[in-house]
Amino acid sequence: MKLTGKEEILKHLPNRPKYILKIYLFQVILITLCTVSILFIFDLLPRFFSINWLISVEPYIPFLGSIFAVFGGLTIVHLTWRKRDKLIAEDRKLAFEKSVKYTFTGIPIAMAGAIHGFLPFSWLADKIFSLSSSQNPVTSFLETSVGKLIMNAVGNPNYNDMIARIIFSVLILIIAIVNMRRTIMVFGIDTASMLYVYYPEESKIVKNEIYSIVRHPLYVSVNLLGISALVSNFSIYSIGIYLILVLGFQYHIRCIEDKELAERFGEEFKKYQKSVPSLIIRPKNWGKYVRFLIRKDMSKTIKNGD
What we know:
Blueprint: H1 6-11, H2 20-48, H3 52-57, H4 61-82, H5 84-90, H6 95-115, H7 121-129, H8 137-142, H9 146-153, H10 162-187, H11 189-192, H12 195-198, E1 204-207, H13 217-233, H14 236-265, H15 267-275, H16 286-294, E2 300-303
Antiparallel strand pairs: 1-2
């Protein structure tokens, strides 16, 4: 399937080469990997340096790292909206070109906060750096799977649910990847890149069944990524990191994106907002969602105002 929206976004990047989207893709991957690596190193600082105060704060470092990544990344993304009026006033033609860096920098940082939930800290510390286990017992408790904690409590210390967790985590991850690909193919890289925040008069309304069951299909991928990370370890750490991710994106959706969409589409969007959830697909709509993932595109695109 041909990537839609490519021509529209390149038209608004007049001073960039035609292969700029490939550069942006590389940038997203690089920033994500670098951010995840930084988070992992911070998680292991108490094991590299046996300093008393580091050992005492060790249980909180993974939570703080994900808070920094998710909310820090989304704060960068929010600059797309906060600087809009100023950039348009300076040069409407180049406004998007000057702002697109915020999206392609902030989103991968926020995504790294979700990926952080996949990391089995002690296992990686042992296998990669040959470091000893945590010196703080609270850390060991927080990174142990909830299932194992429950089984230990009832006297079954040999319980191991790792294989089941990995299988379900991989399945959810595959759905997240397919959802992201389908959403970008159907609605376009131009929409995903926030182009129409700057040029609402050029925006398009895509008539697709997915919009009858969820308002932000692209962010469903982020939610599924977080769920996959949660299931992979199913520890208190992964549960907490998932909640941080959901809180961050719910704030972004409610206070930034939905606010702008309400301004663009008026009362019609406000009514729609009340009837359709932003991220969660209700069980009654799972069949429709599967059809969206697997069938050929049946969308109809209408220019805003037609």
